[in-house]
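Reviewers of the previous submission asked for a worked example of the structure-prediction workflow described in the proposal, so we include one complete record here. The input consisted solely of the amino acid sequence. No template or homolog information was supplied to the procedure at any stage.
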Amino acid sequence: MNGVFVTFEGMEACGKSTQVKRLKRHLEAAGRNVIAVHEPGFTQIGTAIRHLLLHAKEGNAMQSVTELLLFEASRAQLVAEVIRPSLAKGLTVLSDRFYDSTTVYQGAARGLDCAFIRMLNEAVVQECKPVMTLLLDIDVETSFLRQMRRVRPVGGRDRMEQLPSEFFEKVRQGYLETAKAEPDRIKVIDASREEDQVEQDIWERINALFR
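From that input alone, the workflow returned the following structure tokens.
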């Protein structure tokens, strides 16, 4: 793979989407060809899976293992259809969520078998692994307050956002433990600060990556 793959992780309303857009602009201004993707979704198949996972009323009866497999299915399509071909062409790929989300949400928070999740992740992504993951860290209270300030479409919060605070405490701890286990890849960013400060911190990390 000739391209560079960078992923963004974190809880709801941590600022991932905003910072992906800002980093994309920075990199394009520096002359790099960049594509920004997100999970779940982005492909046609992934978008259909996203609706089932997050918005369809049928999702209310979803089992945790079903949820896990649907996230992996969306990722498999994204890797095969977009990420792998883009990296092969030498593009820089920025992804709003990737396999660390599954490790944390379905593993640490849902309590599914971590070895099984690792096996699925390896089978789905194969050689398409991020060289850097930016973990935008905020506490649960800040996440909930930011979500309340969001302008939302009719229908309100999605299925994952409606989960209780105890679930998201496990999510945050899962992320921090994952970062502790892989400090060379995962860089923890204090996302409770102003967006410009977070952007500058990210840009410094990325500049170091490309040196």
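The radius of gyration is 16 Å. We consider this example representative of the routine output the project will generate in years two and three.
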